[in-house]
Amino acid sequence: MGKTSVMNPSEYKLMEESVVLTLGRVSCIPKMSDLEAPLRPKRKKVLVDYFVQFRWILVIFVVLPISFTVYFLLYLGDIRSERKSFKQRQKEHDENVQKVVKRLKERNPSKDGLVCTARKPWIAVGMRNVDYKRARHFEVDLAAFRNVLDIDKEKMIARVEPLVSMGQITRVTVPMNLALAVVAELDDLTVGGLINGYGIEGSSHIYGLFADTVVAYEVVLADGSLVRATKDNEYSDLFYAIPWSQGTLGLLVAAEIKLIPVKEYMKLTYKPVVGNLKELAQGYMDSFAPRDLDQDNPAKVPDFVETMVYSPTEAVCMTGRYASKEEAKLKGNKINEVGWWFKPWFYQHVQTALKKGEFVEYIPTREYYHRHTRCLYWEGKLILPFADQFWFRFLLGWLMPPKVSLLKATQGEAVRNYYHDMHVIQDMLVPLYKVGDALEWVHREMEIYPIWLCPHRLYKLPVKTMVYPEPAFDQNLHQGDTTYAQMYTDIGVYYAPGPVLRGEEFDGADAVRRMENWLIENHGFQPQYAVSELSEKNFWRMFDAGLYEHCRRKYGAVGTFMSVYYKSKKGRKTEKEVQEAERETLETPDVDVN
């Protein structure tokens, strides 16, 4: 197997002119000067550095035991819910919706502040601080909305409440050989967060982002009315405006989501790729996007795709296809049950392909869906530096992962600010043909490895939504594109930057600002679960405001819900600031949404 731990970026060194083999081709790596990051002075350590260095003590003795207890209690609650009939769940749902309606109608707009959910700020899975809840606000409790309401096997639709998690829904559907078309990898991610924010998975190159798989939303509007929005009813504008709106158009109380048939196993092929960053990007594209643009041919396009870039010269591309248990158990086939607590962390297991070469194995489908949960991609290595060792995995691996919400709740203001400055958790959504450029930018500016690559379709819709394909993309198709959708890629940048690992100075806020500017210039998007440095002007340069602002006015959200920019931006908000922003938005002329 060889060593599987991830090397620090400082350990990677490109030769001045090297010739390497990549996907059967020989090509030259660019000189180091073409990609070299600027030299930085050393940074003096301060007290918070030692808090972060030894934070693993708090995590082991406090966060992990509490996390395990919370997970267990949530599991018991889910089991109780599953034992109820769909009729009983619907009855409880209707009663809870009426409570929400009543609560909204109790609000006095002149003194009660803006509406938001009653969920504590640290509970959200995203790394963005929920600073808007530190201003005066009016809370509506949605904690009861965590039930799977119906699984319609004929219509292939799952009707669920917004706090249903990915772990919960797969536990219900996979035994039926069904699954959501897009299942985000981490167990804790909820339907509401993936709809109002952003969600992706290795099947998104076929089905799009999570919200693209939703067929109907049930929403309580500012006036307390309950509406059902679909793409072809009277609320079609609301249907297209809800994704990425961060819950600022109304309160989502249920969603109907597309189901697909699945099999018991995922046949996963691991293929190492060696070369410069542009060649790694091309190998990634070739793994799922036919060069003849035959993107809708299932014989040429796998069911699942992801790639991990481990250094400026090495990556592993993974492609998966559903397989039956009969196929998986044929003689000679290897089954890898990656869900066991003592198993190597998934990203480190993948990395072994760089030494072993290409190989194939079969993973139980549900375990494959949640392959990144136990180690939180590779963030677990920073949280608990030794948790990937066999002795820890065997003795305490069953306690993993720590709940992100509890990590946030126990970090304190100083540690929180440290992570903002010295740590990066960002996703860059860029057109597929620009992935090579984006990888080079990340290397120069941040030097973060591993990097996660996951493709997704960005559909051409009847109206222009907050995120949208490049203008006229369908007139000049690139690899992965079709006439109805442009292929994008999520470039997941999660870890401590190279300069931080080397003890050098690093300005995290400035790096994020430069990343945001690069995305704006290249028609890319930044999911707003992450820390954002965008000014209001740049926010609306990145995202389109037309349909969103139209729906804000039409459905009475102005003056009731905070605008999406002020909900997303960093820093504490005051009621005066929010009210002034709402008045300014209200006075803005309406816009053409066509």
Keywords:
24 helices; 6-stranded antiparallel β-sheet; 7-stranded antiparallel β-sheet; alpha+beta; globular; disordered N terminus; 594 residues; disordered C terminus
Describe this structure in words.
This protein is of the alpha+beta class and 594 residues long. 34% of the residues lie in helices and 19% in strands. Strands 14-11-13-12-16-17-15 form a 7-stranded antiparallel β-sheet. Strands 5, 6, 7, 8, 9 and 10 form a 6-stranded antiparallel β-sheet that branches. A hairpin with a 2-residue loop joins strand 1 and strand 2. Helix 9 runs antiparallel to helix 18. The chain starts with 18 loop residues before the first strand and ends in a 7-residue tail after the last helix.
Shape field: globular
User: β content, as a range?
Assistant: 15-25%
Mean of residue pLDDT values: 88
Helix % is 25-40%
Judged by helices, strands and strand pairing, the structural class is alpha+beta
The major pleated sheet works out as: 7 strands, antiparallel
- Poorly predicted regions are 1-33, 585-594
Biggest sheet, spatial arrangement of strands: 14-11-13-12-16-17-15
Amino-to-carboxy terminus distance: 56 Å
- Radius of gyration from the alpha-carbon trace, in angstroms: 24 Å
Brief characterization of the structure:
The chain is an alpha+beta fold. The protein is 34% helix and 19% strand.
Q: How does the SSE layout of this entry go?
A:
Layout (H helix, E strand, L loop, with lengths): L18 E4 L2 E4 L3 H4 L11 H7 L1 H29 L2 H20 L8 E4 L19 E4 L7 E5 L4 E4 L5 H8 L4 E3 L10 H6 L7 H4 L6 E7 L5 E4 L6 H6 L9 E11 L3 E10 L2 H10 L17 E8 L2 E10 L1 H4 L17 H6 L1 H4 L2 E6 H5 L10 H4 L6 H7 L7 H6 L2 H11 L1 E8 L3 H11 L5 E9 L25 E11 L2 H4 L6 H14 L14 H7 L3 H9 L9 H5 L6 H13 L7
Helix pairs in contact: 9-18
